[in-house]
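Hey, can you fold this one?
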Amino acid sequence: MFDLLAEEKAYREQLYSLSMSLWQTPWEDRYGDILVNLSWELLTQKCGEYKALRDRYAEQVAEQSRFVVCQPRLHPSFWLGALLVPAGLGLVFSPLKLLGLLTLSFGFAAVVSGYCRLHKEKQIESRQKMQHEALHREILATEKQLHLLEEEISQLLSGLLLPPDWSWIIRPDSLDNLRSLKEVFCHWRDCHSEIRRIENQLSEWERQVEEVAVGAIGSPPGSHECTIKVLREKLSEARQRQEEARRAEETLRQEIEPRPVLGVCSGAWQVSARSNPGRRRDRT
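Sure. Predicted structure:
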């Protein structure tokens, strides 16, 4: 019994330790039935999906944080061309007409080049915005799937006090600890049931002893020590009465046994003497 009590205490400490390490909440016995009746295959599947989706979500968020949308701006060549065009126009109407034409041509080319680069950057910005919006929609869809999986896992583990951040699921040893928690609970339950069985058996024995004591002494005793003392006295008295009865029976048997009669024995001797006269003369 003492070994069972020590074993039960050890299992209870293991339950508390595993519960605190897994969920940061104290153990309650009602958790055990939930773990025993749990669909472990379905839980393993859902937790695997949740971990994969959580990794994907982390990658998407990291990609979004690195995503930079191009900001279109006018290239310096545009501003250079904008300065060269008026200068070229001024030189065209001067003796340096040829230089003015060259300057004007170079200015127009610079302006067109700057504008083309601006237009190209705007196209890049438009595509990047579309990609960013698509990534944002993917993140929202992943978050929605995560919430759905969390609800499904919550239904499977209904009744357990789970952490709100769900960080315990993504730990590699979470399911192993959960299974260990169930196994330790089963051992504790068996040990606890055995202790209850022994206690009930002891209670039944005490009840039977009390019934015997009541039948022997006529009233229920005040304590077990009193019961044992009274029963011993009654047993001693019963043995003494049995011994007295045995002695009385033996005495009575001795008194009623038949004894030999002297007259009968003498007559028998005379008959024997008549039948053997020679033997009688020898004696005389």
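Confidence is low (pLDDT under 50) at residues 261-284. Let me know if you want another pass with a different chain boundary.
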